[in-house]
Amino acid sequence: MIELLPQQLVNGLALGSSYALIALGLTLVFGVLQIPNFPHGELYMLGASFTYVLVGYGVNFWLAVPIASLGVVLVGILLDQVGYRRIDRGGNLSLMIAALAMSTVLQQVATLLWGAEPHTTRTPFTGILRTPYFSIGIYQIVIFAAALLCWLFVWLVLHRSRLGLAIRAMAQNRTAALLMGIELTWVRIATFAIGALIGGIAGSLLGAAFPIYPTMGLNPVLKAFVILVIGGVGNLWGAIVGGFLLGILEILVAGYISSQLQDIGTFAILVVVLIIRPNGLFGRAEVLR
Amino acid sequence: MLEIEELSAGYDRLEVLRGVNITVADGGSVVVMGANGAGKSTLCRAISGLIECRRGAIRFDGADISRVGTSERVRRGIVQVPEGRQVFPQMTVKENLRLGGWIHGKAKEAALREIYDLFPRLEERQGQNAGLLSGGEQQLLALGRAMMGRPKLLLLDEPTQGLSPVAIEQVAEALISIGRRGVSILLVEQNLALAEAVGRYAYVLETGRCAAEGPAAELLSSDVVAASYLGH
Amino acid sequence: MKRLLATAAIAALLAGGSTVQAEELVLGEIHPITGPASFYGLVMSQTLKMNAEQANAAGGIDIGGKKYQISIDTGDDQAQATKGVAAFRKLLADNVHFVIGPLASAVAPAIKPVIDARPDVLQIIDGSIADGVVNGKNSFRVQADADTYNDAAIDYLKSKGIKSSAILTDRGHQGFRMSEQRMMKSLKNAGVNIAAQEYFQMGDTDFSAQITKLAASQSEALILRGYPGEGALITKQAQQLGYKGQIVWEMGAPPSTVMKNIPATQMDGVVNCIPRMMADYIRLNVPNAIKVADAFHARYGKDAGENAAFSNDAFWILTTAMQKAGGVEPGKVAAVLKDLKVTDVPNLIIQYKPQENGLLFKNGQAHPPSACQIWHGENWASLPGDHLDLTTKN
Ligand SMILES: Nc1ncnc2c1ncn2[C@@H]1O[C@H](COP(=O)(O)OP(=O)(O)O)[C@@H](O)[C@H]1O
Ligand SMILES: [Mg+2]
């Protein structure tokens, strides 16, 4: 069995890339605005669906990805303005309820528009890289690269731009940020836009690897919340590393213990992390450093 | 410069300020004193627009700003150093200062230079995370950050709270030098010595109302203040 | 004035009464009309409604000298056990005595206890392949049982001389899980070594850990038991991970569904062993199948799904039994069902294998024939030498 380890680790990295990509946008919105944005899973689903529709109309896949993702950005901003902005002072419970409600609404709308039957965008690369130790689809390498690139993009925005300075300020101390003259509205819009963009890209790309259907975002978003706990809320690098860790862990559990325990493994690690490091492996205090 | 007329403000169903009248003259420096819970911080929040003005009016430079957002008030020159310093703990000293100048666009080196000249300590620490500074240093940073906003009126909410005597000294010096530059000051302070050193006119706030006012030197040595502080 | 009103009311009542010449017969159905499995269930419901419309347009169904107008009372189970039980109780509350369905293997076992306790209700299952849901007294099934699926696959392995196989099963699928032990035994008897056995779950998207292990077992074949969405994904990922053996599916897999989840070229050579379904009968030119498919297309503007055949047959089996019983008393209809011959029922699409004495049901279970097909181009194709015996009236 040990001779399968390189292949299983590569499998884990590939799976982890998809988790990391989804967790990235979620951790940003949660870290900056303290909103448990469950509909991030639906933004992911919309990214996938928009891309599928565009490709169906003959648009080139690589052109469809940015168009679809921008569409998702609009939905993301709308989500905040319609769903969250007004109840911002209503407390965590109302935010949670609003989040779940919007998830459901988006799922229903998707069902009405495109039906419930799973479908997959045609993969632009079907090539496979084979080495003596492992093989991996070229497209999985693309997704791996996309996760790192998205992380780099968000990092650059946050640390090398004026807007990023404002977003981080708002994340660390909202009152002080307001007293600097930063407008919450714009930070909200920007944060949701970036979060939705990453979610849209994730869906757009992963929709060519995994089936697309209205509730496809449920499971990934749950995993992403687990990653937030592992990596620390609002910690971008924690989302990436946490995503890879979770992916590898799940594969190792399925590969070496039992495929019946794959999900139990996920929640076991969650509980262990919560007991040993309640603030995540990388710490919650380091919100959007 | 700042005229507050019959201002009422509070939180949800709690009305904290009930008809407050305060005036700060151009280049003037005013001290507001009062027991814990009197509503001093609430007053600062209302002036900055963090909470709404329910009744009455706030005028600044002759214009009514009661309905104007926080950001716009900052742009017009009302900058606050909030209670408890409220620096951005996970950002460097320099980033904190840049945020102070946020409304003026990309921070210019000259503006930073000015602050570093005022507080040399901050320059030494410019690469360090603000959360790692001592309380006194954080307070200087909060002051420096506010100055980056080029205020016309500086609101200070208990800047000496929890500081050592040496640090209080530094803050006092800084405030006096800021006052000399023509910046109007509204200082909320429980430390009598600092209040007397900085303020020229004083108000005493008691459960949301102005209980007394007068030239700082007179008022602060009178019985009224002793009563509201010591609870006689 | 009052009298005038009263007279008018009585007249209206009489007029209303006089139009109710034909009796009304309500048939209940339980299918997933909404939710993720709705693309299976909706066409089943639509097939039933279409059959009822056609029968009504022809003046209704003649039972014991009375003409019955059929109406369909739909219960939506969303393929979930709790929703299914609730939908079923709603039908009972509506005073429904005949139920067609459910489709989902999760729902059938959940409503079984309720059925068992209600001898005045008669059920014909047109979907679930779960074990032990048919009692032969007041519940019958036209869909195959899980063993029919498994045996079809095992027969295929035998015919190809395959000596080792890996198995990957949807662990949430009641029918496949319950029949697992029996399948292992049959494989052993057929001389096939079980090289590895792994599980997944509906909605999973990554199967790489399992496939890596299965591929390492170097089995000659890989049997996939589950639903086509996952089936397509597993097939895709198995190729990525370099699995070289014969992939054998056991699942109802309309080509349209398959191709939504995997490029057609990557499906080439995959074999699917299942009870024959709608598309199969159309391809093999069974007249009843073509008739229903055309009518469905004309009525709804889309193709009837694979499961339409089961619902169609359940409808005709039930109404034929009523005609033979000469009434709509569930106990009597059930008694007729037990003695019903395959050749008694008109309009059947599935060419059931007659049981002893040509009967349709044995202990409540009908026997739809199964067959293996191979993917070619953009569709399933018959394996060489495949042929079908027509066993019903056509
Ligand atoms: N955010 C808040 N929400 C509700 N009540 C508050 C809030 N902040 C202060 N208060 C209440 O308002 C009153 C005045 O508080 P504050 O303005 O902080 O007083 P001071 O600064 O003079 O000590 C107190 O009774 C306090 O409990
Ligand atoms: Mg205070």
From TrEMBL, chain A:
Subcellular location(s) of the protein: Cell membrane
Membrane topology classification: Multi-pass membrane protein
Presence of the UniProt keyword Cell membrane in the record: yes
Transcription listed as a keyword: no
GO-annotated biological processes: amino acid transport
GO-annotated molecular function: transmembrane transporter activity
Parts of the chain that traverse the membrane: 12-35, 55-79, 91-116, 136-158, 189-213, 225-252, 264-282
Keyword annotations: Amino-acid transport, Cell membrane, Membrane, Transmembrane, Transmembrane helix, Transport
Any one of the GO CC terms: plasma membrane
Family affiliation: Belongs to the binding-protein-dependent transport system permease family. LivHM subfamily.
Protein name: Amino acid/amide ABC transporter membrane protein 1, HAAT family
Lineage summary: Bacteria, Pseudomonadati, Pseudomonadota, Alphaproteobacteria, Hyphomicrobiales
TrEMBL record, chain B:
Presence of the UniProt keyword Iron-sulfur in the record: no
Keyword ATP-binding: yes
Matching PROSITE patterns: ABC_TRANSPORTER_1, ABC_TRANSPORTER_2
GO biological process assignments: L-amino acid transport
Transmembrane region(s): none
Listed InterPro entries: AAA+_ATPase, ABC_transporter-like_ATP-bd, ABC_transporter-like_CS, BCAA_Transport_ATP-bd_LivF, P-loop_NTPase
Superkingdom as given in the UniProt entry: Bacteria
Sorted UniProt keywords: Amino-acid transport, ATP-binding, Nucleotide-binding, Transport
One Gene Ontology MF term: ATP hydrolysis activity
Residue span, ABC transporter domain: 2-232
Family: Belongs to the ABC transporter superfamily.
PANTHER family: HIGH-AFFINITY BRANCHED-CHAIN AMINO ACID TRANSPORT ATP-BINDING PROTEIN LIVF (PTHR43820:SF4)
Protein name: Amino acid/amide ABC transporter ATP-binding protein 2, HAAT family
TrEMBL record, chain C:
Extent of the signal sequence: 1-22
InterPro entries the UniProt entry points to: BCAA_transport, Leu-bd, Peripla_BP_I
One GO BP annotation of this record: amino acid transport
Protein origin, superkingdom: Bacteria
Keyword Signal among record annotations: yes
Pfam families: Peripla_BP_6
Domain Leucine-binding protein positions: 27-346
Cross-referenced Gene3D superfamilies: 3.40.50.2300
Tagged with keyword Signal: yes
UniProt keyword list: Amino-acid transport, Signal, Transport
Family (UniProt): Belongs to the leucine-binding protein family.
This protein's name: Amino acid/amide ABC transporter substrate-binding protein, HAAT family
Species annotation: Faunimonas pinastri
